[in-house]
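User: Structure please.
Assistant: Input sequence and predicted structure:
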Amino acid sequence: MDYSSLILLVLAGLGIVSGNSTVTIAMVVLLLLRVTSFHSAFPWLERYGLTIGIIILTIGVMTPLASGKISINQVMESFLHWKSLLAISIGILVAYLGGRGVTLMSGQPIIVTGLLIGTVIGVAFFKGVPVGPLIAAGLLSLLIGRS
């Protein structure tokens, strides 16, 4: 029995149950790569996939600035309000935790499955939003003392 495909199917099922289309699509793509014997893509995805994902995420986050939806005045004013300064501080903390998370996930890939399962359960049963695996890994790295 192909246990890797079975795990991917279970995670895809959890993605469907939780309404997490991102997880579902990712698992289906990986399953298709497995069944089409396109195994040569796996080393490339392992090496560059996270970086490409972060680039796409950064593009998505910065699009309002690039499109002019957020003006330079709004950016400058964000340094004048305590809520914006707090948001900036939290953004710095989250970026730091994400960096620690990338390091932990790269060094200990077994943790990725646990984080993914935890994220899917959080979405499915606690009405969470599936944006936290890197941050969760960063928090975990603080707890287990890995950087």
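The CA atoms of residues 33 and 39 lie 7 Å apart.
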